[in-house]
Amino acid sequence: MNKDELKSMLSAVADGSLSVDEAVTRIKLTPYDDIDIAKIDTHRGVRQGAEEVIYGEGKTADQIIKIVNHMLENSAKSVLITRVSQEKAEEVAKCVKLQYDSVSRIAIAGDYIPKKEKGNIVIATGGTSDIPVAEEAAQTAEYYGNNVKRLYDVGVSGVHRLLDNAEVLAGAKVVIAVAGMEGALASVVGGMVDCPVIAVPTSVGYGASFGGLSALLSMLNSCASGVSVVNIDNGFGAGYLASMINSR
Q1: Is the separation of the CB atoms in 67 and 32 below 8 Å?
Q2: Are 139 and 104 in contact (CB under 8 A)?
Q3: N or C: which end of the chain has fewer CB atoms below 10 A?
Q4: Closest by alpha carbon to 70, among 94, 41, 99?
Q5: What is the DSSP letter of 77?
């Protein structure tokens, strides 16, 4: 059940075409659907305004197919799936209508037409190696109807590349700064803009970067105000949060 369906049901109660008891029964029956391998949160659309997202890593293609089919038949027109390998996506696509991007490893099942209607989210990366995480953020934000501007490879080792795009950054409602190595990009961006900055540390870097821990700690210790930080390589979390901010 999503918010539109809930509003429709309440309207039916108001005009007398649906009884209060029947409405209560419908709500009671839909908190989640137990399909053995998963308990699908059918109320998430009501609580958060967006349906449940499937985390594909660690799930088999058959499990993803079963979950997706149930959601499409009962509560969703399309389903966002993150961290899906090319091989797994090909298996799922045999049974489910699927759009897949191999860079971000994001798949979208069902009938999906992008509606880029909300505000401006700018996504900047330190380097080209950070693009897979940035694309996970970008495509998540676009899935939820946001306009996204990409600024890739504008890291602090050539900071003039970032400064040349100061006007683009100034027009953002939210900026997502994606960087590995020492993660300095988030602090520099945070000192340039008047909107929230979501910092995404990536696991890109040499040995002492400790798989992204160095960037994570740098971003957490940023001296720029208005910078928040998500977990290492969590492009999805950044894109989702940016969409929530952008919708306000």
Answers
A1: no
A2: yes
A3: C
A4: 41
A5: S
